[in-house]
């Protein structure tokens, strides 16, 4: 029996793949043999990441809110690397603000990245995957997809919307060979968490107090989960949102 966890022969696009969780996913995919294209707005960050990832990695500068460019991004990748088989919707932005002070434009800025941008790329990727026998689409959701966290109404709306897309895309595309799943990371050590959490002892205590494993996760924890969900080992898994959170979603 061939290795069911291999990603050899797969071509994956990972949005926001130059740093944090996206880079953790890229590392895992490359380790399992996939060709990986990471995208983002900052070319210098992408170049540095590709240098680390090695010969199986490439990059494209791309803003997920440029919806009219979604199809051309995927076409560019396929012209160089072959048919796209995996899309990881990871690109994101955030805003921490009391809901009553948030403007409609601020809400739209978040939703356009997390929700509409991911929808646009997923639709365009699916159109190509449907022509070539299927594929796998992953959404990087959030703890805010599962329970309430204050001051992140826009982020929560976008990440909760991911789960609606997963459900609908699953029932539409599963009969045609496309699997759609989400991962809900817990608190993962990224640059953003280092800046906003690690130096806040009260917030850290609150997070660890509801996390049974009593520690934060690493980007590679999400990476290996994504690699599994994209692999043949998960060929009968679709429509799920898998928390990777040290137990935080059920912690008391």
End-to-end Cα distance, whole Å, is 42 Å
CATH architecture: 3-Layer(aba) Sandwich
Apparent shape: globular
Number of domains: 1
Return residue spans where pLDDT drops below 50 for at least 5 consecutive residues: none
Report the strand count: 7
User: What is the percentage of strand-forming residues?
Assistant: 15-25%
Structural class estimated from helices and strands: alpha/beta
| Spatial order of strands in the largest sheet | 3-2-1-4-5-6-7
Helix content: 40-55%
List the helices and strands and how they pair.
Blueprint: E1 11-15, H1 20-31, E2 35-40, H2 43-53, E3 57-61, H3 70-81, E4 86-89, H4 104-131, E5 135-140, H5 153-173, E6 178-185, H6 191-196, H7 201-209, H8 219-230, E7 241-244
Parallel strand pairs: 1-2, 1-4, 2-3, 4-5, 5-6, 6-7
């Amino acid at each position: 029996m061939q290795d069911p966890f291999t990603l050899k022969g797969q071509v994956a696009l990972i949005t926001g793949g130059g740093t944090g969780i996206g880079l953790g996913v890229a590392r895992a995919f490359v380790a399992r043999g996939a060709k990986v294209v990471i995208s983002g707005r900052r070319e210098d960050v992408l170049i540095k990441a590709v240098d680390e990832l090695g010969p199986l990695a490439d990059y494209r500068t791309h803003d997920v809110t440029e919806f009219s460019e979604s199809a051309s991004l995927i076409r560019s990748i396929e012209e160089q690397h072959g048919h796209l088989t995996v899309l990881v919707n990871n690109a994101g932005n955030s805003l921490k603000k009391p809901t009553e002070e948030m403007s409609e434009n601020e809400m739209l800025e978040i939703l356009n990245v997390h929700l509409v941008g991911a929808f646009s790329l997923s639709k365009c990727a699916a159109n190509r995957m449907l022509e070539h026998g299927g594929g796998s689409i992953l959404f990087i959701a959030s703890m805010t997809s599962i329970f309430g966290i204050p001051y992140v109404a826009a982020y929560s709306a976008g990440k909760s919307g991911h789960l609606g897309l997963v459900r609908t895309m699953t029932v539409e595309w599963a009969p045609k060979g496309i699997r759609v799943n989400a991962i809900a990371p817990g608190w993962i050590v990224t640059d953003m968490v280092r800046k906003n959490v690690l130096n806040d002892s009260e917030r850290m205590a609150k997070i660890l107090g509801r996390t049974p494993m009593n520690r934060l996760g690493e980007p590679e924890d999400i990476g290996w989960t994504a690699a599994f969900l994209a692999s043949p080992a998960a060929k009968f898994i679709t429509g799920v949102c898998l928390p990777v959170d040290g137990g935080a979603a059920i912690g008391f």
